[in-house]
Amino acid sequence: MAEECMSAKHYKKFEKVFYLYGSVSKMVTPVRPDEWKALAEDMWSWAIVKVSALVDEYTQDFIEPPPESALPEAPVSDPHIKAKHITVKAVQIVKSGDTKGRKWTMTKVVDTDNIGYITFAGSRYTVGKEYTIEYEEVPRGEYMDFQIKEPK
Asked: Number of structural domains, the chain?
């Protein structure tokens, strides 16, 4: 069944072509019915080319989930940072705010082992999906916080 599914990048292209085509077709001034079919086919071809180029350019190594074997074998350069493969059980907003005009949201990503990891990039995580993360254990009194180290 997995072979029959579209890759994440292919699905993104498929989905966004419809959005772009719909947006462009709403901008077209009224056209005679006999001209509409040729115009619609041109807009469809244009949308496929533009979406494909944009998705390829802006999602390089970003959309595809990391492979299951992506857990690094060698130790991470910082001894305080650890790597782990997790399956997301829940994504919960802890708090949000505004600092110097920039909005931020602190999120807790809970894995299937019921460990909560704090991150400011919670929108990157989807319930049920698997990820390879790097995290840091930060002692907070008698508790331990686990903070995901997001790539810059």
From this structure: 2
The domain in which residue 104 lies consists of: 69-148
Say if 89 falls within a structural domain. Answer: yes
User: Which has the closest alpha carbon to 123: 98, 150, 146?
Assistant: 150
Q: Which residues, 6 or more positions from 55, have their beta carbon under 8 angstroms from its beta carbon? A: 9, 12, 13, 16, 63
How far apart CA 23 and CA 103 sit, in angstroms, is 29
**How far is Cα of residue 8 from the mean position of the Cα atoms in its chain?**
10
Q: pTM score > 0.90 for this model?
A: no
What confidence tens digit (pLDDT) does each residue in 110-130 have? Answer: 999 899 999 988 888 999 999
Band (12; pLDDT cuts 50, 70, 90): confident
